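>> received
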Amino acid sequence: VQLVESGGGLVQAGGSLRLSCAASGINVSPNTMGWYRQAPGKQRELVATIQHDGPTTYAASVKGRFTISSDNMKRTVYLQMDSLKPEDTAVYYCHLRSLNNYWGQGTQVTVSS
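>> returned
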């Protein structure tokens, strides 16, 4: 299973970015896909998840600003990030859970003040 992320970059505070993660090499529908992030010197933390049948969860720090969605046919998950803050700066990792857990390589998001 391979997860390929895209969409990271540098943006000013208040701006928006959209992350994408495409899964390949998987023959069953994922139970859950999601996004985690890790800032320098901090532990990796959950940002948002979406289950195969639709329910979503968000970290309190991003609720109302970030939106997770997925295209099950394309095995792709998206993270729309609006009203970005400098504290959102981190490497964002795509995660997929089916029979096992899989991680993407990470994509850098930098929000300047």
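>> The chain is about 0% helix and 55% strand.
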